[in-house]
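To: structure subgroup
Subject: Chain for Friday's discussion

All,

I'm putting the inputs and outputs inline so they're searchable in the archive.
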Amino acid sequence: MTKRFGIDIDGTVTCPSALVPFINKGFGLNITLADVKEYDLNKVVKVSEEKFAKWFIENEPVMYEESPLAEGAEKILNLWKQRYELFFISARGSHLLENTKKWFNKQGLAYNHIELIGSHDKVSAAKHHQVDIFLEDKHDNAVMIHEECDIPVLLFNTPYNQDPIPKGVIRVNNWYEANQWVKNWLR
């Protein structure tokens, strides 16, 4: 039976620092990914939640269309598409589906399904699509998916996800390490 992979998009398929240049330009900052110690970007920008949310919503389509791929993502995902079902499950709002598909096509990435759920609670989507493994960059998502779905979750290591993890959540530094872990898991 073909394995089905649940894969987050932002910070996992896209480079984790993809939004940093947009934030720097939008708020006159000079931060790097190393400065982002929490997933909540508002903590780095230090403006009101309302102001940041308004800016984010206005800039979301362009940021997502111009986000660079994470190193190795294209190579590994194109290798996996020949063997596994790739289900991309993202917190992006469903109104961004066409932008997202356009970005996937531009990057030359194949997919079996893209689901934009509009929230960070990916557990129900992971269960609904019966994924066998999940790839994620948000710490609490990774832990919840692992615990609720009882599947391994590969957590892409970033400065903003350094809290402790349970045994079924596995830190990987890049797509090549993810691929190696998957190969060993499938043996």
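Points worth raising on Friday:
The first strand starts at residue 4 and ends at 7.
The chain has two domains: 4-15+69-186, 20-66.

D.
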